[in-house]
Amino acid sequence: MGGLLFTPRLPAEAVRAFREKLTPGKVLRLEEASLTLTPELAQLLQELLGALSRGEAVRIVPLEAELTTGQAAELLGVSRPYLVRLLEEGKIPYHKVGTHRRVRARDLLAYLEASRKRGRELLDELIGEAQELGLGY
Hints:
Layout: E1 4-6, H1 12-21, E2 27-30, E3 33-36, H2 39-53, E4 58-60, E5 66-67, H3 69-76, H4 80-88, E6 95-97, E7 100-104, H5 105-132
Antiparallel strand pairs: 1-4, 2-3, 5-7, 6-7
């Protein structure tokens, strides 16, 4: 897949100390190369390091990357046939390159966020109904 995958768990204390220093305007240096941190880059690096310190796997994929159906299914955590069904039902935009479907990472993440939002809404509805029925939620 076109992206970087990081999976090792990093020492929490070392990461915490490094994250505290990742602030906009600071300069990162590696030998002769240097990079001034913008607010967005500082936040991105802090989030990345936080996830790694918790032992979470992290994949970095450019938003404009075009993913195969296999790659897109892997990112969503679903089977390829299920993803293809979502595509065919129009729930996630895609286009074809020859006979192969391609999904933009941006569209996949938008679907994932909308799906999570809908899940939270449904859970809130269920909790409300349970409270109305006096089920102790």
